[in-house]
Fold this sequence. Notes:
The protein is an alpha+beta fold. The chain has one domain (17-70). It has two helices and five strands; from the N terminus they run βββαβαβ. It has a three-stranded antiparallel sheet. A two-stranded antiparallel ribbon has the order 1-2. The longest helix has 6 residues, at 50-55. The termini are close together. One zinc ion binds next to loops.
Amino acid sequence: MIRPRGCNAIGHRGWFTMKCRICARVLTVGEDLIYYCPKCVEINETYFCEADKRKLHGKCPYCSTELQLLI
Ligand SMILES: [Zn+2]
Ligand SMILES: [Zn+2]
């Protein structure tokens, strides 16, 4: 379990959900492994589930940047 540094979320869980860009599966931060493209996530919401990340060989289908694991 990796904890974001400087974050003490006591009494505040802050669940976020994202949608996989490819299969539209709802991904919950902290529950599912979510990968994103650091280059086009802000304009394109490029979040991917683990299965699709594997299908994409870890690369963004839009800009070929290596996908990062979202924590
Ligand atoms: Zn997916
Ligand atoms: Zn990208």
